Amino acid sequence: SLLARPPLPLPVKQKLLAESIAPWRTLRLFTYSSFGSGAFVGLLITLSNLAAPDDMKTSDPDSNLQLNALVNLVAVSSFAAAGYFDVKKGKELEGKVDDKFARKLKSKEEEMEAKLVWKGVNDEKVVMNGGEFSLKELNSKRLSVVFLSGPPSYLKETLLSARLSKSLIKTNGLILSLPSIEKGFGKLEEYVGYYSSAISAVMEVEVSKAEGQGANVGEGVVVVLGKNGR
Question: What is the pTM of this model?
């Protein structure tokens, strides 16, 4: 049987991604190095000719040697500058790629952590007009639970919008769940319920996380628990 290849180490993946974004950098650096080295050797030879006694100089007049030295000096400086800025841009790109991988890894860790936290409240109830249902029961019915958190004005506006889109909500199997402390909105639709204090504690963690990411949590926060319990 064929053996599965081991995954590439993370530094190798980052290097390959950086190369794919800006290809040919290695070839360019080789070109800069080769032509720059040739110009540097030519500059040394020309300077040694200029510094040599008259009887040991080449047949070229000093004016030609000085021009050659200037051309070689400009070439060496140009290739050195090009290589420097190319390497600098390469390091900046690798830094951005590292940051991207770090954010992606952090996002995956937070996602896994969130799954574990929500899995811990699977047996908590959502109180609805038709009775009390645990999150596990709602998920088993292929329903998605939309947890709302925010000021009463935000919750009322959301409920009003939901009434205007009642058929769409039912078609997509959505359940709107409000904090238990916000009871008092009158008679609720069959797709609206209240979540328990244990779920409220989890929502507080989600709100803090959203605030840490720069979200304006004062306007309200929505967390969706999908039909598959994620």
Answer: 0.50
